Amino acid sequence: MAHVTRRFHLRHLRGTPTSWISCTTGGKARRAGTGLSFWYRPLSAVLSEVPVDDRELPLLFHARTEDFADVTVQATVTYRVSDPAAAAARLDFSIDPYRGAWRGQPLDQVAGLLAELARQPALDLLARLPLTEALTSGIAPVRQAVADALAHDTRLTETGVSVVSARVVAIRPEPDMERALQTPTRERVQQEADRATYARRAQAVEQERTIAENELQSQIELARREQLLVEQRGANTRREAELDAESQVVATAASADRLRTTATAQADADRVRDEARATGARLVGLAEAEAEAARLAAYRDLPPAIVQALALKELAGRLPAIGELTITPDLFSKLAGRLG
Fold first, then answer.
1. Shortest CA distance to 6 belongs to which of 99, 89, 104?
2. Dihedral angle, C-alpha 135, 136, 138, 144, nearest 10 °
């Protein structure tokens, strides 16, 4: 859309590179072209603006196939105004000189024309095709028919509109019919899925059986090893008992030998000790007898007075300690008589 600004009683229009603008004053074309910028009087100027860029037109229409099934065709048409002067002459592309906006809806007219021209060849072609063929291989023929119809239409040529490309996006039946057509495929896919599920379950059962067999073999092996362990423990226990018995026998024999040796040594020691005691007693007796004989022999040659004095001395050594001693004549006489 052109940009219009105001300066006093004049207006200034600035176009775009993709818009063709013409200015007519007094029935004469003053300016025409793309990317224009000029001043004009709004009371006397007649302005037209035609877009010359590529535009997309989405189309959606219904058709009926050879077997009376309704389908929906979704297409897209790309077009451009190749002759803007012819388009401005055939359609109302005039703009308001004060605001720069279109007075009408010229692009809607172009869209309606293209939709009618594209719909007719598609309807004619689909009417000759059955539903299954239209859905499976009908997109390419419909696209070619629409492109040919739009490329060779005289009305578009006279209007200055050129079709760049035509595309058919999809051809779809009614929802109920689509579900019915999808049922065989869905059932086939479901069967394949069921077969895959059954195969997976069978494989899982086989794997579980293999795992159970492995576990059973492992338990059998563990039981066998446990039996061997128990037998080995019993053998070890018996061997320990035998070794303990042998060691006890050896200990008992050693203890008996030790006791015999001790008893023999004790008996020998007692005999030696008794003999030593007897010999010692005999020697002591002989020594005492010899000493006594020597003493008597010594006393035999001494005078009686000396013998008495020695007797008194020995007696005095055997008497208890006397703190005071009073000797009376009677006591001395009795003592002398006892000694005599």
1. 99
2. 140
